[in-house]
Amino acid sequence: MNKLEAIQKVVSSKIRTLAHDIAILNIPAEVEKGLQAAGSNQKFSLDALPPSLDWDTIKNNPAPGSEELFTNKENKRYPCWLPGDETLGDDWLLSSNYYPFYFRLYRHLAQKFQHPALLEFGVRSGYSGVVFAKAVEGPKSYFGVDPNLYVAKGLESAAATFSQLRKEGFGLQSFLIEGFSSSEAVQKTLSFSAPFDFIHVDGEHTLLGKILDLWIARNLVSENGYVLVDDFEHHGFIFESVKAACQSGWFSKFSYVPTKRGLAVLRV
Ligand SMILES: C[S@@+](CC[C@H](N)C(=O)[O-])C[C@H]1O[C@@H](n2cnc3c(N)ncnc32)[C@H](O)[C@@H]1O
To answer: Left if phi > 0, otherwise alpha if psi is -120 to 50, otherwise beta: which for 190?
Structure first.
């Protein structure tokens, strides 16, 4: 399959495709290979890879519930808590196996980094940033990229939330970039602050977008860092993207964390 055929396959298959997919025709050769791996029937088992973490140990650590995580010291919701989110889709916002699971992961895994840095593709209104800020003890940095596609003023809500967290003494530095992760300018900007200890891939929900984000993450993550891929079980193409990225040799370690929608944790 050549580049054009790979792209045609992606934009014509029965997955959600954004107009933006088609704009990224100048995709790197490695991403083209990733797309081809996703389209091939070659046998490859993620379970055969060594684990990226020991979830059985981490899962027993304590964590606050989402209500507590997203409530400030004045007993009010942070600005990231948007009207309607509580009833949007399933109970992702308040589920005990969604944000509290991320809390456990960040608290445990961040211990080995000094001043840990999280890069997130897909900020929305900033929920994940709050969890990171509260889970990681001591100073830490959060970098978020989002084109404000799903929520018009999402980055404004995130900025207001992070400002409150700073005033509350959570030691969070934050940098928000309005744009697409696929933008070369955005990638160049991020490269000046790389490597990142954690990268949360939760932005564009298409096969091409996910494979591209995994390739970008692979190049920006620190040697001992973690790439977290949300919705691993929620959309078939996300499972396919993770499999293709590992099959292409971008990551050599894999673990599955049973969050509400499934989470893949990868290491290079
Ligand atoms: C599922 S939401 C992210 C939720 C967030 N991680 C959290 O836990 O609160 C997905 C976000 O990805 C953003 N998005 C879509 N395409 C993107 C892209 N190419 N780069 C970065 N963000 C993107 C959308 O605007 C949306 O806000």
So the answer is: alpha
Q: How far is CA 116 from CA 29, 137, 227, 230, in A?
A: 31, 10, 13, 20
pLDDT in tens, 133-166: 999 999 999 999 999 999 999 999 999 999 999 9
233: domain CATH number is 3.40.50.150
Whole-angstrom distance, CA of residue 194 vs CA of residue 62: 31
Q: Whose C-alpha lies nearest to ligand 1, atom 4?
A: 124
Q: Answer yes or no: are the C-beta atoms of 161 and 170 closer than 8 Å.
A: no
What span, in angstroms and rounded, lies between the C-alpha atoms of 241 and 212?
9
The rounded Cα 212 to chain-centroid distance in angstroms is: 13
- Most informative mutation of 17, 85, 146, 178 for ligand 1 (most atoms within 8 A of CB): 146
Ligand 1 pocket, residue 235 CB under 6 Å: no
Torsion of CA 258, 259, 260, 261, to 10 degrees: -80
Bond from prior residue into 116 cis (ω within 30 degrees of 0): no
Q: Which residues of 180-201 are buried (b: 16+ CB within 10 A; e: fewer)?
A: bbbbeebbeebeeebebbbbbb
Measured in degrees and rounded to the nearest 5, phi and psi for residue 266 equal: -120, 150
pLDDT tens, position by position, 61-82: 999 999 999 999 999 999 999 9
Domain that holds residue 80: 3-267
Residue 128 Cβ < 6 Å to ligand 1: yes
* Under 8 Å between Cβ of 146 and 181: no
Non-local CB neighbours of 4 within 8 Å, separated by 6+ positions: none
